[in-house]
Amino acid sequence: TRTAILISGRGSNMAALLAAARDPAYPAEIALVLSNRPDAAGLARAADAGVPTAVVDSRAFKGDRPGFEAAMEQALAAHRIGLIALAGFLRVLTPGFVGRWDGRLVNIHPSLLPAFPGLETHERALAAGVRLHGCTVHLVSAGVDEGPILAQAAVPVLPGDTPATLAARVLAQEHRIYPAALAWVAAGRVRVADGRALLDGMAV
Ligand code: GRF
């Protein structure tokens, strides 16, 4: 499946997906890395890996979300993309876009959803005093950081943790579960029933 990775920044999850996809047996072919920011560090990493890149600068579409998404759709169509992996992509997508990509739009989020949707998840986990934190890969449905869960990994919150130390512990797990979960979707092994993802017909 020709797959696009959408990024806004560093792109470490993108790099993990690119590394997994180097295996010819991996079911997703990373055919495009698309950034909404021209200065995203991940763009250079993708280019170094020989992957086509594109930029649709969201600042050029201030107040025009439909225009921004139309430009993204154009880039995705030009590269014949059939599956999208959001990897640190910091723009909220409209229900129209999400609906068009229903079942073919995957996201990674740095918390154990449904806890801590949105930004600054590590700060909020520390403030809440939770003892377990983690990350979630999910299919994207209408709401922000909502949708059928594909995979989760938990990490302990340790004494003395800062947002940065906790983020690093979570990130290592993100890099592990995202390639696995994306492969399930690319291979057509995921189906959604009653808002929950089934893998090979069984609850994940
Ligand atoms: C990751 O923690 C991801 O879960 C979140 O934003 C961060 C992006 O990091 N959505 P990177 O760009 O993949 O390094």
TrEMBL record:
Residues 2-182 form the Formyl transferase N-terminal domain. Pathway: Purine metabolism; IMP biosynthesis via de novo pathway; N(2)-formyl-N(1)-(5-phospho-D-ribosyl)glycinamide from N(1)-(5-phospho-D-ribosyl)glycinamide (10-formyl THF route): step 1/1. The active site is at H109 (proton donor). This is Phosphoribosylglycinamide formyltransferase. Keywords: Purine biosynthesis, Transferase. N(1)-(5-phospho-beta-D-ribosyl)glycinamide binds at G11, S12, N13. (6R)-10-formyltetrahydrofolate binds at R65, N107. Its EC number is 2.1.2.2. Belongs to the GART family. It comes from Paracraurococcus ruber. Catalyzes the transfer of a formyl group from 10-formyltetrahydrofolate to 5-phospho-ribosyl-glycinamide (GAR), producing 5-phospho-ribosyl-N-formylglycinamide (FGAR) and tetrahydrofolate. The record marks D145 as: Raises pKa of active site His. The keyword Transferase applies.
